[in-house]
Design brief:
The protein is of the alpha+beta class. The protein is built from 28 helices and 22 strands. It has a 6-stranded mixed β-sheet, with helices on both faces. The protein has a 5-stranded antiparallel β-sheet with strand order 19-20-16-21-22. A 3-stranded antiparallel β-sheet has the order 12-9-15, with no helix packed on it. The chain binds a DNA duplex through helix 15, helix 17, strand 14, helix 23 and helix 24.
DNA sequence: AGACTCACG
DNA sequence: ACGTACGTGAGTCTC
């Protein structure tokens, strides 16, 4: 009997708390037995290996070797080929040429797609068969160079930037195409294998499958190969089929769909990704990359990727069709991939000097606040620690806590709670100011300049297409969808987002798109009329629920009406409204009742959304995007109500997301058709998407024309029962923007 | 790794 | 009687 314990993380659903996380220890052998019995396979192979006699008492490193060995025996049944010389390549290439569709996957030395050095590419067009082309020592030397700040990614160019072959040396192994001669003559030629592959990868009629294919597109673009015929991204296919989960990585899908456990990156590279604790201690972390993995292991790994990407594509596509998600997939999500690739590659220019200046000022102010806070508290403490702050406020200073809500660990110190206390003690306001400055300073002012790409001098975010439950995009490293705007210092940060000389930033945003969609989808006559009359919707709502004429609506009434209009979109109840509108509970309750009398069809729409989600098991958008809501039938009221709110919100938020995605695709095609210059640059670049806003960098003299064209595209994505209004603004930075008159 | 807090739509 | 708006990502503290 193994005594080794396995810790399992469990999400436990319990009444009134929704979920909680517990860690439970089990005997390892029991877990193996249990998982087998339940056919719950995900961890099974690994656990079996680790509890085998062979692995007992071995070090982590030795266990890793055992796992890899076992894995290599596992894939013996597959035909994975390593292609290293021209003879093999020619044989492979003859077969590739006959294919109408295939999966491919690129392996690179780093994860920075602007300078990712290609190590190899794997291909598969038949389950269980794959080829890995090693190209790392075939790179043409002497092509090192800087990316121009304004390189165009697609349609045509990404400045060549291949920094020779690095450590592998610029040895040219091939004599295809008289390659050596051409290099000697100083001709600008690609690696000969890549040159052969280029027409196939660029052929629109040959379908390509990939997993997170945006990455491979960007890598190939570094080699001036413009991948076309992008048919299936299996990550996105999985996302559309099940948007609620985040398990869309290839390893997880391979396992859940085929019961095959792939070798993981960690197994392959050891503790490369292990925590950066070593960094903090000043110990230099080993920087292992794919480049350091022996080719015998790497080719199997890569072939497995291509193989299972192919199999997944073949399996998931019929499933998408069956669920009627194929149109959304083929006409929105897949065409969007290339748009996002271009946006990420373009990046946005940042005024780092300006941020450095703000940083200094902010740091000074933070120091001053610290001193004042310590004085008020009567001692020094870490203000960033909620634990210590809680102790100072609620114990040392005895600030009354009747109104303060609790978190799992004790009394809350969140902004809302502090606002309630702001008149009770002078320290509260100081802490509020301190929090704002520290937040902006650490998350933006100091963080953004560090992420500027050295080659391009610009900030390149990643847009993730398979994260959100509603169909929105998300943005990481850095998140450029949450750049401050609500406070004065926040707006200063926006000022650091600038355009190149000779260019302007152009912003276009949908005006009240979710409310307009609510009007359209509910068919509510009063709401539709308000939008048709181009009236101020919040004023109209205020007039209706207070039963006064619009001219009698004061600021306070409008503010409350605005809160209720937004609250409705999220299924908010009286308590929530009383908080956001800052009115008593009874008043909020009255308001909501009155609101549903005025906007009868909105109430019906809400009820219908819930009923439909209950019947079908999912909420859906106008474009058939789904969000599964199994909990809408929960017997726990809390849980059920939460699912009902999601059923109300998702069709609105999700349809808005669908609309802007369609607009982006159309705009992208327009830009490439009309604004490509002869230097393969573009006078118009799409830079960012912030849910209902698109940000462009546009040649100054073309701003007016472009603004009009884009506005028209955005407004006409779909025909609604109400007008769709897009506001256009232009400026030399993201803060000071003036309306563009059309 | 989780909890908390807070930036955005 | 419960808690109370939807959707994200990141920095920091704590263990």
């Amino acid at each position: 009997m193994s005594k080794k314990l396995v810790t399992i993380k469990c999400d436990v659903k319990i009444p009134f708390k929704l979920t909680d996380t517990r860690f439970v220890n089990f005997n390892q052998d029991d877990v193996v037995a249990l998982f087998s019995e339940l056919e719950f396979k995900s961890l099974l192979p690994r656990l079996q290996i680790l509890s085998s006699k062979q692995a007992k008492g071995k070090s982590k490193e030795e266990q890793r070797e055992i796992i890899i060995d076992k894995y290599e025996r596992n894939i013996k049944k597959f035909k994975y080929h390593l292609i290293q010389d021209d003879k093999e390549f020619k044989k492979f290439f003859t077969k590739l040429k006959q294919q109408k569709e295939f999966a491919f996957d690129t392996e690179t030395a780093s994860f920075d797609t602007l300078s990712a050095e290609l190590l190899g590419i794997s291909f598969s067009w038949k389950a269980g068969v794959a080829y890995y082309l090693e190209v790392r020592s075939n790179l043409p030397a002497g092509k090192a160079g800087k990316l121009p700040a304004h390189h165009a990614y697609l349609p045509d160019s990404l400045a060549s930037r291949q920094a020779g072959a690095g450590k592998a040396g610029g040895e040219v192994r091939s004599d295809l195409f008289n390659y050596k001669d051409r290099v000697k003559k100083g001709e600008n030629v690609l690696n000969p294998w890549l040159e052969k592959l280029k027409p196939i990868l660029e052929n629109k009629n040959i379908k390509k499958f990939g997993h997170n294919i945006k990455y491979d597109i960007k890598v190939m673009a570094c080699y001036e190969i413009k991948v076309q015929g992008i048919a299936v991204d299996t990550m996105i296919a999985s996302y559309l089929l099940n948007p609620g989960t985040r398990q869309h990585n290839l390893d997880a899908l391979t396992f859940s769909e085929f019961g095959h456990q792939k070798i993981t990156k960690t197994d392959l590279m050891g503790s490369t990704f292990a925590k950066a604790t070593a960094d903090k201690k000043g110990v230099k972390r080993k920087n292992i990359t794919f480049a350091d993995v022996p080719i015998e292991k790497l080719y199997n790994y890569s072939c497995e990727d291509a193989d299972f990407t192919y199999r997944l594509a073949k399996k998931l596509m019929p499933e998408l069709k069956k669920q009627k998600l194929d149109k959304l997939f083929n006409e929105i999500e897949m065409p969007l991939v290339i748009v996002l690739a271009q946006m990420e590659t373009s990046g946005i220019k940042i005024d780092s000097k300006f941020l450095a200046k703000i940083s200094q000022n902010t740091k000074k102010k933070i120091k001053q606040l610290e001193i004042k806070i310590y004085k008020q508290a009567g001692k020094k403490f870490n203000i960033n620690s909620t634990q210590q702050l809680r102790e100072v406020l609620y114990e040392k200073l005895n600030i009354p806590t009747e109104t303060v809500s609790k978190t799992k660990t004790g009394l809350s110190t969140a902004a809302d709670e502090l606002t309630k206390l702001k008149d009770l003690h002078p320290i509260i306001k100081l802490i509020q100011q301190y929090r704002e400055l520290v937040k902006l300073s650490t998350t933006y002012i100091d963080a953004l300049p560090k992420l500027v790409n050295k080659q391009t001098g610009r900030l390149h975010t990643s847009f993730n297409q398979s994260v959100t439950a509603t169909g929105r995009l998300s943005s990481t490293e850095p998140n450029l969808q949450n750049i401050p705007i609500r406070t004065a210092l926040g707006r200063e940060i926006r000022q650091a987002f600038i355009a190149e000389p000779g260019y302007k930033l152009l912003s276009l945003d949908y005006s009240q798109i979710e409310l307009r969609l609510a009007a359209h989808m509910s068919g509510d006559k009063k709401m539709i009329k308000a939008f048709l009359d181009n009236a101020d919707i919040h004023t109209m709502t205020a007039a209706e629920i207070n039963q006064v004429s619009p001219s009698q609506v004061d600021r306070e009434m409008r503010r409350q009406a605005k809160a209720i209009n937004f609250g409705i979109l999220y299924g908010q109840g009286p308590h929530g409204l009383s908080q956001t509108a800052d009115i008593p509970y009874w008043r909020a309750k009255e308001f909501i009742e009155e609101y549903f009398i005025v906007y009868k069809e909105v109430k019906k729409f809400i009820d219908k959304s819930i009923a439909s989600a209950r019947k079908k098991g999912y909420a859906e958008t106008l474009f058939n995007r789904r969000r599964y809501l199994p909990e809408i039938n929960s017997s726990v009221m809390q849980v059920r109500k939460a699912a009902e709110r999601m059923a109300i919100n998702m069709p609105l938020q999700g349809t808005a997301a669908d609309m802007i995605k369609i607009a982006m695709i159309e705009i992208y095609s327009r830009i490439n058709r009309e604004y490509k210059t002869n230097t393969r640059e573009s006078d118009v670049k799409m830079l960012l998407q912030v849910h209902d806003e698109l940000l462009f960098e546009v040649k100054s003299d073309k701003v007016d024309k472009v603004a009009g064209e884009i506005k028209k595209i955005m407004e006409n994505v779909i025909k609604l029962k109400v007008p769709v209004i897009v506001d256009a603004k232009v400026g030399s930075n993201w803060r000071e923007m003036k309306e563009v008159k059309s």
